[in-house]
Amino acid sequence: MADNRQNRRYPQNLQGVLQLAVEAGSAAEGPAPAEPMSEERKTWLREALADVCKGQMDEVEQMKQCLAVLRKEEISENEREGEEGRDDEEDEDERESAFEMLSELCENLDNARDLMILGGLELCFSRYLCHVQSGLRWRAAQLIASCSQNMPQVQEHLLSMGALERLLQLTDSDPHPTVRVKALYAVSCLVREQEAGLQVFLSHDGFSVLMRGMQSENEKVRTKSAFLLLNLLTSHPEQKDTVVSMGMVQQLVSVLRTPHSPFHEHVLGALCCLVEDCPQGLKDCMNPDLGLEELLRQRAKELQGKEESQEELDFCEHLRSMCVRGQQSDDNGMDR
């Protein structure tokens, strides 16, 4: 019996404990047990819970150790001359490893909350989002994204310290493409399904940042910018007039004229959003000077028969039909 118990896999986190509880509850809904819980079963449950608690404590200690590494003052030039066997690269590697460990640990929502309480997010914001080393900038942005995803308490904490403004700046102008990609990921985590985050995004001209992102030379930045634009327009249709007034239709069509790329699917999706229940957006798309109808006809022809491009083709045909109907409506109005 003891050997069997040692071979059992105990839950290593709260999700595992919850699963254990669900399974126990499901079993309880069946026929009543013939006898009370055995001593072996009680011992197994006690050991499982003890292992979970021990694992959580170990993870908090790991986070504290990582933060100790990140909080160390960086060596000045004079101090570095007196140090043997240590250089900038070694110090940077140690900090990068600490960030990677924290990002892995903070996939657990409880750990993300604990990191906030331990002051780890303030450290990311105050020291590392503006760090001279790009490898530390993007890892700080990635950690912020991991912690804030689906965590309103963490999102509000980050918004209160001004993290979104800094992340938008990095997305827009950081010289390193990976920093821009990770910063945009963090922006998305702070804005999607977060009304307060959306308001900060709007107040700092976030849609213009996305517009410029779609014109970036980096494919990942273009893709994430277009995807976030589509998501925000879908979730917040009240923002369509604002976006159209910025000349977004003309900009998106300009993007579509660049060499074809998979992210054009999101661009076409955003254009579809801007013509639905938005008269000015439809009017802009129908402007003959834009040449959108011919562009869509040519694009649809290129996509025919490509299964992987079916959604993009659907967007093309939907947008064309909306423009045609809009033109027919205008013609009928003129005839009257």
TrEMBL record:
Q: What does the UniProt keyword field contain?
A: Phosphoprotein, Repeat
Q: This protein's superkingdom?
A: Eukaryota
Signal peptide boundaries:
none
Start and end of every Nucleotide exchange factor Fes1 domain? 14-115
Write out the biased-composition intervals (Acidic residues). 80-95
Q: Which Pfam families match?
A: Fes1
Which terms in the GO cellular component ontology are assigned? endoplasmic reticulum
**Where is the segment annotated Disordered?**
75-97
Q: Name one GO molecular function term.
A: adenyl-nucleotide exchange factor activity
Subunit details: Interacts with the ATP-binding domain of HSPA1A. Detected in a ternary complex containing STUB1, HSPA1A and HSPBP1. Interacts with PGLYRP1; this interaction blocks the cytotoxic activity of the PGLYRP1-HSPA1A complex.
Q: What is this protein called?
A: Hsp70-binding protein 1
Organism listed in the record: Echeneis naucrates (Live sharksucker)
